[in-house]
Task: structure prediction
Amino acid sequence: MKPCLKLIIINCTHQGMSVRSNQFKRWYLALIILLPSFVMASEPEIYTRFFSNLALEGYDTVAYFDQKKPVKGQLKHSYEYKGAVWQFSSQENLDKFIALPQKYAPQYGGYCAWLVANGDTAKGDPQYWSIVNGKLYLNYDSDIQKKWLIDKFGFIKKADVMWPSVLN
Result:
């Protein structure tokens, strides 16, 4: 039995509470059955924060191409694509994305491109980005981006091989 479960049982019995053993066993069994599915669940195809479904932390993915910088999107210009909500700074950018999402969406679902190339996943930070051959790539932070820029073409080759198997 896990230590935290022992603590629950001990607390219940020390406080004079009666633990219905059959009911407890059912809950415990359900926990044991369901826990592996949470632990072994694969990462979503598009990176979003834990309690959010917002892609790119709300930044406008089209702006990287047209304005050459990260620009915050607006709620009124939102669109759902691949299970994530994408926000745009203008209706024009939203329309461009709807017409060609594969052109504008960041590679590797917005996960850090350098980490994907190295067989792992972590968030891509919208502030650390580059466009290579017309595609958007994100990196985890400035230190990782420095590593990425040393051999971005080599890392793209490696990441293309790793993607999407790194999500499992």
Q: What stands out?
A: The CA atoms of residues 52 and 71 lie 19 Å apart.
